Amino acid sequence: MEHGHGAHAGASGRYLWRLGAALGVGLAFLVVEVVVGALTGSLALISDAAHMLTDVFGLGISLIAIVLARGSGPTFRRTFGMYRGEVLAALANAVLLFGVAGYVLVEAIGRISEPPAVPGLPVLLTATAGIAANLVSFGLLRSGAKESLNIRGAYLEVLADLIGSFGVLLSGAITILTGWRYADPLIGVAIGLFVLPRTAKLAARALRILFQHAPAEVDVEKVSHELGGLTGVADVHDLHVWTLTSGMEVASAHLAVDPAAEPARVLAAAQALLAERYSIDHATIQVETRESARRCQELSW
């Protein structure tokens, strides 16, 4: 029952210390950005600090997901374990991000008419430190991103924040070289707008999982057709495909078979099809006769 879940946790577990180290680096730099941003009044730094907060939150989610997957697997009371904790945390992260991005945009609009003077050198130095911090985290997570979807999500968060740090660097450089006051609020807005689409995508993905919709990359109608084409299968019904948490797709189905069919062969063929063509290793298949399948048609849902 749990072999697929164990493999998922094991792959990420090998990079547990790397995630922890990247989280420590992110937290340290987040404090630096918040302090310097507050002291200088730099909207670009505050905006990038919000982005860094999402990275820290995302790394924390990944770390918690690995710990929960390793130590809180399925039980008789929690038959799916604590895997959904990652999804709920991601949704909370998205709500927080929308609020922060909204604050940055409103604050920027208020500053456009009379942009405050922002010292460029502290912003420039902080951005340089941010690039260095992100490069360290980038190097820690790069190898794991090829093996684990969970680690890849954290890796992409760090990569996106690296881009944000370059934006802050540009803001500080423009301020030092030209004294143009609009550079800071405009780049702050750009970073805020850069965060919003990723936030919407994160929220949509979390909601899709919580509503138990089929994974976007799986054509359930095609799956039904292919299962129905297996030797001995007369009918496919009660087919469900959903995501338990990121990288863990699950399926269940009822297959009505012909009287001459061998249920064990049909079961093996169905499980192989789902695993090889759709990477669904955890599938619960009920093989039944046509007569017993009629009961399913009498159910209200």
TrEMBL record:
GO terms of molecular function: zinc ion transmembrane transporter activity
Residue span(s) of domain Cation efflux protein cytoplasmic: 215-288
Residues in Cation efflux protein transmembrane domain copies: 22-210
Keywords, alphabetical: Ion transport, Membrane, Transmembrane, Transmembrane helix, Transport
InterPro entries assigned to the protein according to its UniProt record, in alphabetical order: Cation_efflux, Cation_efflux_CTD, Cation_efflux_CTD_sf, Cation_efflux_TM, Cation_efflux_TMD_sf, CDF/SLC30A
Presence of keyword Lipid biosynthesis: no
Secretion signal span: none
Topology of this chain in the membrane: Multi-pass membrane protein
Keyword Ion transport set for record: yes
Membrane-spanning intervals of the chain: 21-46, 52-69, 90-109, 121-141, 153-176, 182-200
Compartments reported by the entry: Membrane
Pfam families in the cross-refs: Cation_efflux (PF01545), ZT_dimer (PF16916)
SUPFAM superfamilies, per the entry: Cation efflux protein cytoplasmic domain-like, Cation efflux protein transmembrane domain-like
GO cellular component: plasma membrane
Highest rank taxon of the organism: Bacteria
Record family assignment: Belongs to the cation diffusion facilitator (CDF) transporter (TC 2.A.4) family. SLC30A subfamily.
NCBIfam families: CDF (TIGR01297)
Protein name: Cation efflux system protein
Organism: Amycolatopsis taiwanensis
Taxonomic lineage of the native organism: Bacteria, Bacillati, Actinomycetota, Actinomycetes, Pseudonocardiales
